[in-house]
Amino acid sequence: SITNYSGIGIVESTLFFTAIILEVPTGALADILGKRKTIIISFFLSALCNFGIAYSTNLNNLVISVVLGGIGMSLYSGAFDALVYDSLLQDKKESMFNKVLSRITSQQLIMVAVCSAIGGYLYVYDHHLPFMLCGIFALVASVLSFFFTEPKLDTEKFSLKNYTKQNTEGFKHLFNKDLTKIVFFLIIISSFYALSDEMLDSMLGYEFGLSSQMLGILFSVIALVGALFSYLSGKISKDKDLFYLILILTGLSALTYLLSPIAGVILGSILLISRTAIMSVHNNYQSTILNKYIESKYRATTLSSFNLIKTLPYAISAPFLGIYMQQITAKNFAFFIAIVLMVVVTVQSLVKKKVLAQQKFLG
């Protein structure tokens, strides 16, 4: 072993903060340099990261590898959704975005489930193998990305001036008059989901009484269920209903948090699976809504800005939340989240109702 738990913590923090800090700058780069080129570079850096981890002999090499991985993650974030949406927009098929995205997400989650199961066995056989295979697949993805077609929409010539302007304008675009009515609600909900995904759900699993082996199996099942619901979300929704569906989904999600304090192994597993299904559908609907109100020339920058803002609260507060949850338990903290979500949904529903009433009166 080349490191201990402390070293693992340093590696994880380095990866996470690198990806967060570079979210907006890499989004702006994608809008100016091109989404296709950005995705090619992101997969290539991911390959270097995994190869580096596989052959690292000390902590310094590990940190350098995950920095490359963090840059790759931030380059991919925002750029891929923007490429898909703009490609459809160019062909006047943007109404199909939710359906296309749901299928892509479901396929990704299926691969997560399969690779999680296989990766565990490969690691026991040879701990280099999982990272080597990840690196090979990332390299193949980088090559295949050359065959993507860059949408010819609002392209800008690269310069330092344009790049600086892209960062600021793309960030401000997130709070334009069309998005302001819903963006704060989406940020709050997504921030809690980021916390659940990164920290809370694993803690809840242990408090529900699940062993490490059971958690491994459960997370594979969770990925498959998420894939199923992501696929179904593209079939049962209509663009005009998406925000109302998100409100309903958030209410259901609040229920999964609310029941956590009384949950054991069986109920707890059901709650975790249900919340993951809700989150996978929520993410698809959220991306569809955001893309609908974002101009093509700011798309990747604005989506990256949203990803930054929704993740930043967790990044800043994670150490303190960990200490707090240790004192009051993760189950009780989940109950607190449920209360906050119910209040937020109620307020947002009243605001939406008021806006609709005003539009009806003026119309």
UniProtKB/TrEMBL annotation:
Organism domain of life: Bacteria
Transmembrane in keyword set: yes
| Gene Ontology molecular function terms on file | transmembrane transporter activity
Spans traversing the lipid bilayer = 6-26, 38-56, 62-85, 106-124, 130-149, 179-196, 208-230, 242-259, 306-327, 333-351
> Which Gene3D superfamilies does the protein's record reference?
MFS general substrate transporter like domains
Q: Which residues form the Major facilitator superfamily (MFS) profile domain?
A: 1-355
Q: Does the keyword Chloroplast apply?
A: no
Give the UniProt keywords, A-Z. Membrane, Transmembrane, Transmembrane helix
The record's SUPFAM superfamilies line, in alphabetical order, gives: MFS general substrate transporter
Could you tell me which InterPro entries the record lists for this protein?
MFS, MFS_DHA3_Transporter, MFS_dom, MFS_trans_sf
Q: Which PROSITE patterns match?
A: MFS
| Name of this chain's protein | Major facilitator superfamily (MFS) profile domain-containing protein
Q: Which organism is it from?
A: Candidatus Shapirobacteria bacterium CG03_land_8_20_14_0_80_35_14
